[in-house]
Write a structure and sequence with these properties.
It is built from 18 helices and 5 strands. The chain is an alpha/beta fold and about 400 residues long. It is globular and about 55 Å long. The termini are far apart.
Length: about 400
């Protein structure tokens, strides 16, 4: 899907919606709450992002593709109303600042029998393609391979271990509802980010549940399994997430932000530069650092309102030193015994995905206008509570 523009303003909301309808041959987008966040994002892109022509085409194409998927999903639900009757059981949601080992832990836990997770290629196209046989998403996976090739070319593999069949973040799907932190990881959109901080994201979580039902229905091997979700982006909307998944435990991965935030800024900077030549690394770095400091404060404030039994804390140092021990501890909290088979599957994943097999990731604080003392100050309350 390239979201090719048919004329006029490439960031015109009506034009994007019409292109999606035309490509899908469908016109029912389901709940239309997404139109407001979509309009806010488009406005911020125009005012703030300073995208070059290729960047505009990239973002527009992603929007059209996501809308086509939305049209196809709600069309499938009309034709197969049993999709809406699927029961979704989310056992755990992993969060924490980026670069805290959450990806590693997500993929390890997902190896345990009885659990399932969203695969990376599913985040790109969660809806079945026309003519796709249920349970045989061959063309969708091929489409994911093409997108993955672009990530490799952009040099992102040394920063984040993208893998087409591995579990990945549902924030990629929520981005297709125009809700969440993903836009600000790819563009400079401060006015959208400010607006999002005031927005009730509950309906977007409702749509995420619908997507999980759809994915469950597509793949019968998921029947009876519990979901393990993961994205740092939940920290910005933790109240809505905990209400959406009332039986889920939130697994919080912890690591010193002085180490994690600059690394994440490097990833964001790399992605942003795919779409603009006019936003410098310092502007993006300082914006990103302040946003995540704010997210952690929101999370810490929200956490005090819930029973501690809804949370499991995982320290990065423990996770890297004794990953199987941490996995065993968390599985026990989730009511799962660490069997020899589960341990072997996790150990196999650890061997296959050793960090030294990826290229080194280099960056400095100064690149992003960051200062160690300022980082220590911005994250002092978080460190005092969780990194004792």
């Amino acid at each position: 899907m390239n979201g090719a523009q048919t004329g006029g303003d490439p960031l015109d909301q009506k034009g994007i919606l019409e292109d999606a309808r035309r490509q899908a041959g469908l016109d029912d987008f389901g709940p239309d709450y997404f139109l407001e966040p979509m309009a806010k994002l488009l406005d911020s892109i125009r005012k703030d992002a300073r995208l070059h022509e290729a960047g505009i085409a990239l973002q527009r194409g992603r929007m059209v593709n996501g809308l086509v998927g939305r049209l196809r999903m709600f069309d499938a639900i009309k034709r197969h109303p049993e999709i809406a009757e699927e029961k979704v059981d989310v056992a755990a949601v992993i969060a924490g600042l980026p670069r805290t080992g959450s990806t590693m832990f997500h993929r390890m836990l997902s190896r345990a029998s009885g659990f399932t997770a969203i695969r990376w290629w599913e985040t790109q196209n969660y809806a079945s393609f026309p003519g796709e046989e249920r349970g045989k998403p061959i063309e969708r996976r091929k489409a994911g391979e093409k997108i993955m090739a672009g990530y490799v070319q952009a040099g992102l593999m040394s920063i984040h271990p993208f893998a087409i069949d591995e579990p990945d973040e549902e924030i990629i799907i929520m981005d297709q509802f125009y809700v969440g932190t993903m836009p600000e990881s790819a563009m400079y959109v401060p006015s959208y980010a400010a607006w999002l901080s005031t927005y009730d994201t509950s309906k977007a979580y409702g749509d995420l549940i619908t997507v999980l039902k759809f994915l469950q229905w597509q793949d019968v091997t998921r029947k009876g399994k519990r979901w393990v979700l993961k994205t740092p982006g939940h920290l910005s909307m933790v109240n809505q997430m905990l209400k959406a998944f009332p039986n889920a435990v939130l697994i919080m991965t912890h690591r010193d932000p002085v180490s994690t935030v600059p690394s994440y800024c490097s990833m964001v900077d790399t992605i942003v530069k795919m779409s603009t030549n006019e936003i410098d690394s310092v502007t993006m770095g300082r914006f990103t650092e302040k946003r995540w400091a704010g997210f952690l404060k929101q999370f810490t404030d929200a956490r005090s309102k819930y029973a501690e039994s809804r949370f499991i804390d995982v320290q990065y140092e423990n996770l890297t030193r004794a990953p199987l021990g941490e996995a065993r501890r968390v599985l026990e909290r989730l009511g799962v015994q660490m069997t020899p088979e589960i341990e072997a599957a996790m150990q196999e994943w650890l061997v296959e995905n050793a960090r030294e097999k990826r290229a080194a990731h280099h960056y400095t604080l100064e690149q992003f206008g960051l200062d160690k003392d300022e980082l220590e100050k911005d994250f002092a309350a978080y460190k005092a509570r969780f990194l004792k």
